[in-house]
Amino acid sequence: MSDVNRLRRLLFANYLSTFGVITVGIFVLLAFLEVVTFGRITPYGPYAANFQQTNVLPSLAHLFGTDFEGRDIFSQVIACLPVDIGIPIVVVLVSAVLGIILGTVAGYFRGWCDEVIMRVTDMFLAFPTIIMSLAIAATLGPSLLNATISLIFVWWPPYVRLVRGSVLEVAAEDFVSVSKALNSSFFYIMRKDAIPNVLPSVIVYATTDIGSALATLSTLGYLGIGIPPEMPELGKMVSSISYNLYTYPWQVIIPAVIVMVIVAGFSFLGEGLRESLDVKLRPHILLRSKPLEALEDSAKTSPASD
Amino acid sequence: MYHLNQPIQVQLYYFFSSYLSGNFGTDPQTGRSIASEVAFYLPNTLELVLASFLIVVVLGVGLGYLSGMRFSKKSDSAIRVFYLFTWSTPTFLGAIVAVLVFTSYVPIFPSGGMYSQSIVPPSTITGIFVLDSLIEGNIAAFASGIWHLILPAMALALLNFGIIARIMRSSVLDVRWSTHVKAARARGLTEGKVWSRHILRNALIDTNTMVAMMFGWLLSDTVIIEQVFAWPGIGQFGYQAIIADNYPVLVAVVLVFTAGVIVANFIADVAYCVLDPRITLGESA
Fold this sequence. Notes:
The complex is a heterodimer.
Chain A: H1 3-11, H2 15-36, H3 73-109, H4 111-125, H5 129-140, H6 144-155, H7 157-171, H8 174-181, H9 186-222, H10 234-240, H11 249-277, H12 283-286, H13 290-299
Helix pairs in contact in A: 2-3, 2-11, 3-4, 3-6, 3-7, 3-9, 4-7, 5-6, 7-9, 9-10, 9-11, 10-11
Chain B: H1 8-20, H2 34-69, H3 74-88, H4 91-105, H5 129-136, H6 139-158, H7 162-176, H8 179-186, H9 191-229, H10 234-243, H11 247-275
Helix pairs in contact in B: 2-3, 2-6, 2-7, 2-9, 3-7, 4-6, 4-9, 5-6, 6-9, 7-9, 8-9, 9-10, 9-11, 10-11
C-alpha cells in the first residue's frame, strides 16, 4: 500500500477524525490562501466601513452579517485566521521539539540529568496556564512574538513528561540494549529507536493541543492582552463587539463559535488519530504523579535500569 | 520589603523572606496590604471553584463511566460528542452564551455579583459567603448566594468536565476487559459488584491525576468567568492588576494560584493511597 493510501485510510478511519480532517482542512486552507493572496480572498475588505448597511442580519450578501460600522463579519473572520491558526501551530511545534529534546535526554540518561530536567518541568507545570501567560504577555508588551513566547512558556512541560515516559519504556526494550551493545551512539539510538517510537503519541497529543493553544490564544485576545491592537484576532473581535451582545447577539457569537469549531476540529482529529493509532492516553505520564511511575518502574524488570 | 538599593540577590532574599512570613507588600493602587486583599478575594473564588469542582467531578466521572459502560453504543457516541464539544468551547463563549440565555431570553438567573443588593451580608467567619450565611442561619442571604452561584459555577463546570469524562472513559475501557475483572466474574460476583468494586475503583486511579489538574484549570478559568459574571474573586483581582501593570499584586496572585495547584496535587497524591492500596506514601517503591 502506498504512503498516500495509508495516510488517507488513517485520516478517514472513523467519523471523529473525518470530521476533524474536513474542518481543520477547510480552515487551514482558508488561512493559507489568505496569507498567499495578501488578503484578496475575503469578499469585502475586513475593515471597509459601509454605513448604509450596519448591523445587517446574516444573509447571502453578508454571510455572517455586518457589525455596527457595516463591516462584513465573514471577511473579518477570514482575516483573523492566519494569526489564529498560525500561532497555535508554532507554539505546539516549538513545545514539541523542546519536549522531544529534553524528554529524550532525561529518559535516556536518567540519574541527575533526569532529576534536574524533571524538577524544572514540574515547577513550570505548577503555574496555572492562563494567568501565567497573561502575566508574561502583559509584561513583555503587545506583539505577536511576545504572545507566542508567553504561550510557549506554559506550553512545553507536558511534552517533556510525555516524551520522557515513552523513552523510558523504549529504553527498556531489547533492541535498545542490542543497539547499545553494538556501541551505537546516543544520537543513533535516538534517531533509529527512540524517536520513531515516541513520535505517534507526540503527534496525537499535539494535534489536540493545537486546539487548546488556540483557545488560550483567543482568551488572551478576549482579555485584550498580548495581541497588538491592529492585528485581527478572533477573541479580540468577540470582546470588541461584546457590548452589542443583547441587541445583536450574532455579531458576538459567530466569531466565538468559529473558535469553537476550529478547536473542536483539532480535538476530534486528535481523538480519532488516537483511536486508529491505538495510542494510550496515560495522564500519569503526561502530567505528574510520582507514585504510579514508581510502581511501573518497579513492576518492570527492565534490562536498561542498571 | 523590596530593598531596591541592594544588589539583586539581596533583594531576592528579602523578597522571599517577607513572602515566607506572609508579608506580600503593599498594593500601590489602594495602599492596603496585599495579604489582606488576597484574604478578602480568595474565599469568593474558592466558593466558585469548589462548587464547580463538585459538579465537574460528578459530571465527568459519571458520564465517562456511563460512556465506557455503553462502549460503541449510541449513548456512548452521544456522550463523547457532547463532552468533546463542551471541552472545545472557549470559556468566554460559554460564559457569554450563559449570560445571554439565562439573563436575557429566559431571565431566571442574575447576570452577575455574589448576592442581591437588598441582602445584608453575614459577618465574616470563613469568608465564604454561602457558608457564612448558613452558619449564621441567614436563610435569605444563603438563598441569594446560591442563586447567584448557580450560573457561573455551572458555566465553569460544563466547559471543563470533558477531559475528566475522556480519561474516565478510556480507563474504564482499559479495565473492563482486563484479567482481574474476568476473575471477579468467574468467582461469581454480581455484575453490579464487578462494576462498582473492580472496574470503577481501578478506573478512578487514572482519573485522580486529572481531577487534581482540573482544580488548577478551574482556578485559571476564573479569570474569564469572574470577568463576565462580575464575581469579586481573585481572578478578577489578578486581571485588574495585569491591565494596570500592578506587579506586586500580580506576583502575589500568581503565587496564590500556584499554591492552589500544588495543594490540589498534594491531595491527589494522598488520594492515590486510598484508591490504590499497592501505593504507600513515604516509601521508595
